[in-house]
Amino acid sequence: MSGSMLKNIWLPYTQMQTCNNPVIAQTTKGSVITLQDGTELIDGIASWWTACHGYNHPYIADHVQKQLQKMPHIMFGGIIHEPAITLSAKLAELLPGDLNKVFFTESGSVAVEVAMKMAIQFWLNQNKIEKTKILSFYGGYHGDTMATMAVCDPEEGMHHLFKDVLPHQHIIQLPTTQELRQQFSDFLEKHHHEIAAILMEPLVQGAGGMLFHDPEQLSFLRQQADHYNILLIFDEIFTGLGRTGSFFACNQADIVPDIIILSKALSGGTMALAATIARECIFDGFLSDKESHALMHGPTFMANPLACSCANASLNLFEQYDWASNVKNIEAQLTQELAACLKLDIVKDVRVKGAIGVVELHKIDNMNLLKNKLLEHKVWIRPFRNIVYLTPAFTITTAELSQLTRAIYDVLSS
Length: 414
Ligand SMILES: *Cc1c(COP(=O)(O)O)cnc(C)c1O
Description:
Elements: H1 2-5, E1 25-29, E2 32-35, E3 40-43, H2 46-49, H3 58-70, H4 82-94, E4 99-105, H5 108-124, E5 133-137, H6 146-149, E6 170-172, H7 178-191, E7 195-200, E8 204-205, E9 211-212, H8 215-227, E10 231-235, E11 259-262, E12 274-279, H9 280-284, H10 305-318, H11 323-338, E13 347-353, E14 356-361, H12 367-376, E15 379-380, E16 387-390, H13 398-413
Helix pairs in contact: 3-10, 4-10, 11-13
Bound molecules: pyridoxal-5'-phosphate.
Pyridoxal-5'-phosphate (PLP) is lined by residues 107-109, 112, 141-143, 201, 206-207, 235, 237-238, 263-264.
C-alpha cells in the first residue's frame, strides 16, 4: 500500500529511496491533524507556521466560500477587484511608515525575487547601472528558486550543491558585535556603489537555523543603508504577522524598511499568497514617461481573489482576539517547559522568542528515527538539520502545547 501510494509523488527535501511511509492527513481542526487511520496528532508547527489561527478556521472558510460563489479568479493585468483593494489598504494601514504599495504574488520565494528585482530596477531607472548586487547574511534563508538560493546561507543552507551555478551575491556575517559592525561598515565603504539592497530576515533567521538577534541590529542596518544609499529589504515571511510577539518584527526596532515581504501566515494558512510591499519613494522611482520603467513582473495567479479573501479574513481575526497575549503566554510556557531539555547532554541550546521555541542539538544522527519517535508520541514536529522547533498556532491550548514540549523532552531523553 505505502509503495503504491507514493508511486507518483515526489516529496520536498526527501530522499525518496528511503521514504516509504508518509502519514496521510485527512482532516485538520485547530491544532489537531487527523490521519486517515483515525490517529490524532497535535501540530507543533502549524504547517510551516502558516496556520496562525489554527486549521480550518470557520471565519476564514466562510469568507472563502462566499468569494468562491462570486469569483474564484481573474487575471490582475489591467483589472482589479474588491478583495485585493481591501487587502492592500489593510496592509498599508497595518504596516509602519509609508509601506503603502503592495505587489501580490503566490509564493514567498517569488515575492523575494520581486523585492530583489524591484530594488535593482529602482536603481536602473535612475541610470545607476552598477547597483545590481544584493547583500545578505550567513544563516539566512530566502527561498528555493535560483535567484533566492543565491542569497541564502551558502554553506549551511540547503543549496550548497548549487553554489557554483548561482549568480554571485555578497553574503556576510550579521553585524552583531562592535567588531563585526566595523567590518560591515568597511565592507559597505568598499562595495556600496554596486549594492542595490541589503536583504535580511529581521529578529529571526528561520529555515537557516532558527537563529535570533536583537532589534538593535535592525536599527544599525537601517542607519548603514541610509548612509550608503542602499535599500533595506526585510523578508518577514517568517517573522511577520505576530510570530515574534509584535505584529511585524520591524516594529520592535521602530524602523521602516524600504521593502517588506510577507507570505506564510498572510492568508491564515488557507491559500498560497505573498506580498512585496514598498515605500512610496520606491514606487515613485518607477513613475516615468517611459513604459520600460514600469515594474517588469506579473505572475499569472497574482492577487488571486480567493487567497486575498482568506488574507482579509485572517487579518480581521487578529482584531477579534488578543493574539498578542496568546503569543506572550506561549512564549512563557515554551520558556518554562523547554528548559528541562537544556540538562540533556545531546542538547546544545534552548531558545524562545515569541511563539517560536527552539531546541538545538549538537547533531541529529538518525533523523528518520527521531521523526518516527515524535509521531509515536502523537505530535507533528519536523526537525531539520540539528534543530527541533515549535511554531504553534496562536490559538493552541495550554494542554496541547504541554503535550508538544513533553513529547520533545521524552523523545530526546529516551
Ligand atoms: C518560507 C520562506 C521563504 C520562501 O517561501 P516559499 O513560499 O516557500 O517560496 C522565504 N523567506 C523566508 C524567511 C521563509 O520563511
